[in-house]
Amino acid sequence: MFGKIVRLNLLTGLLLLVAGGCTAPRDNPLDPRSDLFVPPVEEPTPPEFWYRVRTVHVSRNFPTTDVYYVQTELSVLGPDAADSVMVRYKQGAGTLLNEDEITGVWGGTFNPGYFGDQHLESTPGFPFVFTAYVRDKGAYSPPEASVVRVITETPVILSPAHGDTVGSMPELVWEAFNADFAYGFKVTVISHTAVDTAWTTPLFASALLSVTVPDSVALEPGEYNWTLAVIDSFENYSRSKEGEFVVAEAGQQ
User: CA 210 to CA 21: how far, in whole Å?
Assistant: First the structure.
C-alpha cells in the first residue's frame, strides 16, 4: 500500500510539472528565457581605414623657391564615419585634420618648419600615428605610417614652354629623369582662362619622354601651362616648373 502511495505521488508531481512548467530555468540568469537574463554586450566591429603619409615637392616659376611639405590623409571605409581625426608625429602633440566634405577624406599638411628641416630629409622612417574618433564606436588607431622618401630631384620640361604657340593637340616633351627607385610620370594641363584642369593623364611609364594631347580633348584657343610630376610607388611626389604655352586659333599657328 505504501509503495502505491509513493508511486502515485511521483506520478502526480510529474503531471503537475508538465502542466505548470519548471520554474528553475526562469530563475537562471544564464537562461535566455529567464527574466534575470542579461544579454551579452556585443563588441562593435572595428572600422577599416585607408590612410597614407607622403612627401610633396613642388617647383615653381614664381616664386622661384621650391615648396616641400608632408601630406597626411585618412578615410574611414564602409558605413562608419569619423567625428574627428588627428595625427601625431613621433611623440609630439596631436594635430587635428580637416575633412573634405566631397571626398570624406581627412587631411592635413606639415610644412618644413614643423620638422626644422627645409627639405624634409630628416623625416623618413619616423612614425605618424593616426587616431580616428569613430561615431558610436570610440577612438581607433590603425598601424603607424611613416615617410619612405623625399624626391628632391625635379623633373624638367622642354617644350612647349616660355609662351610657345602651338596647335590644339601639342606634344609635351621633357628630359629623362634618373632615379634609383620605381616611379611613373603624370602630366597636367591647366587653362589660364578657366583656371581649371584642361587635361590630366593617369600615371604612365617612366621610359616615356613625351605625350601628345589626344584629339578627344583637343584644347580650345587660349593660354595654358603644363607640369610634369614624378610619383613613386608610395605616392611621394615631385613636380616640375610650369611650361607656359598658347593654343592659337585654327589656321593661325
Answer: 86
* Element at 28 (helix H, strand E): none
Q: How far, in Å, are 13, 15, 108 from residue 2 at the CA level? A: 17, 20, 90
For residue range 185-209, list pLDDT tens digits in order. 999 999 988 777 899 999 998 999 9
- Cα separation, 179 vs 157, whole angstroms: 16
AA identity, residue 234: F
Burial degree of 238 (CB within 10 A; 0-12, 13-18, 19+):
buried
Q: How many residues does the chain have?
A: 253
Q: What are phi and psi of 235, to 5 degrees?
A: 70, 20
* Neighbouring residues of 43: CB distance < 8 A, sequence distance ≥ 6: none
Residue 10 φ/ψ, nearest 5 degrees: -65, -45
- Asked if 72 contacts 111 with a C-beta cutoff of 8 angstroms, the reply is no
What is the per-residue pLDDT across 46-77, written as a single tens digit (0 to 9) for each?
999 999 999 999 999 988 999 999 999 999 99
Cα separation, 85 vs 72, whole angstroms: 11
